[in-house]
Amino acid sequence: MKRLLIFVALSWSASLAAAPPQGFEQRVETLRKAVGVPGVSISIVEDGKVTMAKGFGAKRLGSPDPVGPDTLFSTGSTGKAVTVAALATLVDQGKIGWDDKVVDHLTWFQMYDPWVTREMTVRDLLVHRSGLGLGAGDLLFVPDAKASRAESVRRLRYIKPATSFRSGFAYDNVLYMVAGQLIEAVTGETFEKYVAEHVFKPAGMLHSTSDEDIRLTRPDRAQPHARLGGAIRGIGQQQVLNEREGLGRNAAPAGGLAVSANDMARWLLIQLAHGKLPEGEGRLFSEAASKEMWTPVVFQPIDELPPALAAAVPNFSTYALGWDVQDYKGEKIIMHGGFVWGFKTAVVLIPRRNVGFSIAINSEDGVLINGLLYELLDHYLGKPNEDWPAAWMAYKQELVANATKSLSVQTAKRAKVGPSLAPARYAGRYVDPWYGPIDVAATDGRLAIDFHHTRGMKGRLDHWQYDTFVTRFDDPTIEPAYVTFALDADGKVDRVTMKAVSPTADFSYDYQDLLFTPAKAQQ
């Protein structure tokens, strides 16, 4: 991995700023090249005006086609706030209420616990307090699902909770998919159509889309990139990822949007204006809805960071309706990050300063986003400039070193024992109640696994130790996993469990939530 260059600190004003930092564009370009990010899209608004909507670099690695102000970037979970805005338009029309029971509008909705089913409100869908575990259900759409959104929502009834209802915070995506289905039930329109007609169109965000089919027809779109081939994802050479059809379609309400710099600037202006449209006439949503969006509902746990990043640790961290609400050096910040394979995004609002900005990249190198994010915060808050990119890069290098060491330790200590059975005796169909079926096949003394509801998710099973195997899928972008077969007293496979090999695997690979049992036993 290329080391981050040592940057000469630019002389950025420590006074309250009314414009982007002096030399900011060159700063972005220098950092982009140093980190190795193919393309960047940045929007900045101040006091009701757009002061930057600009692209840097290329849409695709090795291509001369530059990123422009209308180039679409997939923005991941920052789109949750757009789903909330779509719901807000229905609240303003009196068609739903934030505290309405979900089953009153989506009659077939069902959670694992009948009481939770009855009590779940629209607000509960949006604030990650349902009792589901972190990322529970994400394998219904990660990385490329065959099941429809409606089918994924129907399978919620089989996902066991990790905690009691409303007892704490655990980030999920699947309940935003429920919110999308609720919009369809109330309006009679698909989520994609409703967002296009009732959010993007009135907002003047005419390049943006939540429809994957439409995004893939737009020539002015960035291509996804990731570092693959190393011991863990995130190290090694930058590679262009395939744009698999279906990626994002199932989970569009949770983060399947594509937005340009120009359109993101309009979104920032609308948020800071509490729903008023930039031209000064009309509203996207009401002042009351805006207040609800930014009102904290659930406390989030605060992660520890090393001393060099101590200033980035908030005193409080909460979740509102599609937004994180926390503090930074005494100032309230409204923000949200987004990640979808090959892209990362951050959207930040500083309400008291009437400033907002977004940073999107077509790779997974979060060092650039974090570095620029905190430099911009310091600039607009009038704080002394710090070398944030260098601090975040050092932290990433530490995480990578610890992860690779952990993998080495796992390899060194594995027992050269097993397997207990001949390959053919592991073969068969196994079923998880919420994911569905997988097949384990034995051919020429080798085992292979196939996840039927996920495109490209199949591969060899290589023996690891005892009755645990490791699968590195044919699609190298899918996280490898340990697959463990548990035997009953008769020496037959009783159940199959999984966990990610990499200690840094994204939480959406929620292998640990799967519990497969033989299909015949379920008949």
Could you explain the architecture of this structure?
The chain has 523 residues and is an alpha+beta fold. It is built from 14 helices and 20 strands. It has two domains: 24-91 and 187-402, DD-peptidase/beta-lactamase superfamily (Beta-lactamase); 423-522, Lipocalin (Beta Barrel), CATH 2.40.128. The protein has helices at 24-35, 80-92, 114-119, 122-126, 149-154, 174-187, 191-203, 212-215, 252-255, 261-272, 287-294, 366-381, 388-413, 423-426, and strands at 39-46, 49-57, 73-74, 225-227, 238-240, 258-259, 298-299, 317-319, 324-328, 331-340, 343-350, 355-361, 428-432, 436-443, 446-451, 458-465, 468-471, 481-487, 493-500, 517-518. The strands form four sheets. An eight-stranded antiparallel beta sheet has the order 2-1-12-11-10-9-8-7, with helices on both faces. An eight-stranded antiparallel beta sheet has the order 19-18-17-16-15-14-13-20. Helix 2 packs across helix 7 (191-203). It is globular and about 75 Å long. The chain starts with 23 loop residues before the first helix and ends in a 5-residue tail after the last strand. The model is unreliable at 1-17 (pLDDT under 50).
